[in-house]
Write a structure and sequence with these properties.
Structural class: alpha/beta
Helix content: 25-40%
Order of helices and strands: HEEEEEHEHEHEHEEEEEEHEHEEH
Shape: globular
Distance between the termini: 24 Å
Bound molecules: flavin-adenine dinucleotide
Number of strands: 17
Strand order of the largest sheet: 6-13-7-8-9
Oligomer: single chain
Largest sheet: 5 strands, parallel
Radius of gyration: 21 Å
Strand content: 15-25%
Length: about 350
């Protein structure tokens, strides 16, 4: 929303001090390694902190160097990424500045946070150009690594209608493999036949490949057999599979859900319940079912609320309305309701 000029960056930011729970001992350093046998964490300032129980939640790592030229392109005027807060102003500047030509939007292969975000900005941009009367002069290209618009058919069908409405050229099963920000060219590869094509663009919104943080990937909490390297936890109990006094949640965990804040909202009560049970020596009854949601902004006043779980079937929170269709009321949920939920409910541990 910030990258599309529908909200300000300042609205999305609060100081860490203002959200720090009372009674927490806030250590202002980064964790660099965990020794589960010694039950200790080494910090970036050289200190070592011991623990009885550990909850690991450092998020996912953005790898801008994972695509040839992407890191350098991010320094050029025409290429931006909403995955970096400071870059969102450039996205909005570019959307407003380009009145004809080619706009490129890309999504990388592999797990990323908010898999809908690479598409949302394409729809918000296309709707802006439609409002300005410029969409007819634009070639809007969306590159997706997936075979469909979304992993859940009901939502994929609606998104097919959205891209048709804007005339967006979608390249499925495809990836950005090279970008030249100065020359404004990008190479995309179709992974079905490995063919490549070069696209000249006027603006590009890129999303970097993502991975478990390097210090987690190379450490003892990851599954040594799994190159993805996320903290290995049981997908329901959120407990580390080899170290019962460790739990993980969020983007850094190995649970096979869609990596979203919405998932975290359903995971943390389970972690709390099971951590308390582990401390008390009672059975771990809390179970996370894979809930995730992706509020897909399909226009500058419409939103498709895709909610689903491990079954990959729609799991609507509002069963009395049809959330498999883009809706105007859902836009207000996204614009006003979800930030309130985030700051006042989630961040305060109220559910
Ligand atoms: C553009 C965009 C749009 C999105 N839209 C949505 C959406 O509409 N709905 C939705 O539900 N989700 C959305 N998401 C995804 C959502 O932001 C993430 O899934 C969510 O923030 C994950 O929470 P987390 O706590 O696991 O990780 P994070 O929010 O990344 O938090 C990790 C924290 O750990 C800290 N940290 C990292 N490394 C260390 C270390 N070594 N030591 C100590 N601390 C460390 C970080 O500073 C950070 O505070 C979006 C994401 C992006 C980028």
């Amino acid at each position: 929303m910030v990258g599309a000029g529908c909200a300000t960056a300042a609205e999305t930011v609060r100081s860490q001090a203002s959200v720090m729970p009372k009674g927490a001992d806030w250590i202002k350093a980064a964790a660099e390694s965990v020794d589960p046998d010694q039950q200790s964490v080494t910090l970036s300032d050289g200190r070592t902190v011991g623990y009885d129980y550990l909850v690991v939640c450092p998020g996912i790592q953005l790898n801008f160097t994972g695509v040839s030229g992407m890191a350098e392109a991010m320094e050029t005027p025409s290429v931006s990424s909403n995955y970096v807060l400071e870059s969102t102003a450039k996205t909005w500047r570019n959307i407003q500045g380009v009145k004809k030509g080619t706009a490129l939007f890309t999504m990388p292969a592999g797990p990323i946070k908010c898999a809908g975000a690479p598409q949302k900005i394409a729809y918000l941009s296309a709707d802006y150009w439609r409002q300005q009367g410029n969409l007819k002069d634009m070639r809007v290209v969306l590159v997706l690594p997936t075979p469909g618009m979304f992993g859940v058919k009901a939502f994929a069908d609606e998104l097919e209608r959205v891209v048709a409405r804007y005339g967006i050229e979608v390249h499925k099963n495809s990836e950005l493999i090279e970008i030249d920000g100065e020359g404004r060219t990008a190479v995309i590869r179709d992974n079905t036949d490995q063919s490549t094509q070069t696209i000249d663009f006027d603006m590009a919104h890129v999303v970097p490949p993502q991975s478990a943080p390097d210090w987690i990937k190379g450490g003892p909490l990851a599954d040594p057999e799994n190159p993805a390297g996320y903290v290995e936890v049981d997908k329901n109990s959120m407990q580390q599979t080899r170290f019962p006094n460790i739990f993980a949640l969020g983007d850094a965990g190995s649970t096979p859900n869609s990596k979203t804040g919405a998932a975290v909202r359903k995971q943390y009560p389970v972690v709390v319940q099971n951590l308390q049970a582990q401390m008390a020596g009672t059975p771990l009854d809390g179970s996370y079912g894979g809930y995730a949601s992706c509020p897909l902004t399909t226009a500058r006043n419409k939103m498709l609320l895709a909610e689903f779980d491990y079954t990959m079937e729609p799991k609507p929170s509002f069963p009395f309305i049809d959330t498999t269709k883009e809706r105007r009321d859902m836009w207000y949920l996204k614009r006003r309701g979800l930030p309130t939920l985030y700051w006042n409910v989630m961040m305060k541990g109220r559910g």
